Amino acid sequence: MSLYEQIAIKIVNKCLNVKDGEQVLISGGIHQYELLSKIALHTKIAGAHPTISVINDELYIRTMTEVDESVLLRDPTEHDKYIAGLYDAAIHIDSMVDQSKLQKISSELISKIGTKDHILRDIKYDAKRRTIAMSWPTKERADRAGLTEQEMADLFWKALTINLDEMDVLNKKLEAIYEKGSKVVITSEKGSNITFSIEDRRVMVDGGHYADGMVEEGDRIKNLPCGEVYTTALESTPQGTAIFDEVFLKGMCIKNLKCEFKGGKLIKSSADENHDAFLELWDTATGDKDQIAEFAIGTNPEITKPVGDSLFDEKIFGSVHLAIGENKFFGGTSHASIHWDFVIQKPTVKIDDVLVLKDGIFQI
Question: Which residues of the chain have pLDDT under 50?
Answer without folding.
Answer: none
